């Protein structure tokens, strides 16, 4: 793993563990096993590093979700498969929760996250249209928001399982 990859990996871990505001250059460099000056050698700022780390993780997760859609045939299966894929993702869900929350206070991060989510909604809307779901764009937007909400609520209510969520959201798809 290169130094830059170690920094990105350490940033993802620390965001998930401590939250955006608690990640400092010193703590990040220590976690990555490098000196603090190395952070600024590879990135313009700590903020730029945190944005890149979190957006890359989100993009990877979303790209995996689009592949999941290719493996299912109906909307309810798609919903269940998306939730399974999120549960199985390598990155902790706290990273995504922290990233979404930080995006509400940071314009650069908001734009980057919005781009990733817009790509996913377009892909999901296209899949829904192919499967004759009415108003696919609106349905994709609501489903994506609902899944984001489930991730946020799971931080507080871990028993909000796929078995609870899928039947309720599946009614939206009918």
From TrEMBL:
Pfam name, any one: TetR_C_31
Signal peptide (from-to): none
Keyword set includes Repeat: no
PROSITE patterns referenced in this protein's UniProt entry, alphabetically: HTH_TETR_2 (PS50977)
Keyword check for Ligase: no
Residue ranges of the annotated DNA-binding region, renumbered to this chain: 24-43
Protein name according to UniProt: AcrR family transcriptional regulator
Taxonomic classification: Bacteria, Bacillati, Actinomycetota, Actinomycetes, Pseudonocardiales
């Amino acid at each position: 793993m290169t130094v830059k990859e170690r920094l990105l990996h350490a940033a993802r871990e620390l965001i998930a563990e401590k939250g955006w505001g608690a990640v400092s250059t010193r703590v990040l460099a220590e976690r990555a096993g490098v000196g603090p000056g190395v952070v600024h050698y590879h990135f313009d700022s700590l903020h730029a590093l945190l944005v890149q780390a979190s957006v890359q993780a989100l993009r990877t997760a979303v790209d995996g979700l689009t592949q999941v859609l290719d493996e299912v045939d109906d909307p309810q299966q798609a919903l269940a498969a998306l939730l399974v894929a999120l549960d199985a993702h390598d990155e902790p869900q706290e990273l995504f929760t922290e990233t979404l929350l930080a995006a509400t206070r940071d314009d650069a991060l908001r734009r980057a996250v919005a781009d990733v989510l817009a790509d996913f909604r377009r892909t999901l809307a296209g899949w829904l249209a192919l499967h004759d779901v009415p108003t696919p764009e609106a349905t994709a937007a609501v489903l994506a928001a609902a899944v984001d909400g489930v991730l946020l609520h799971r931080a507080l209510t871990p028993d909000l399982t796929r078995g609870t969520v899928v039947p309720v959201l599946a009614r939206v798809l009918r």
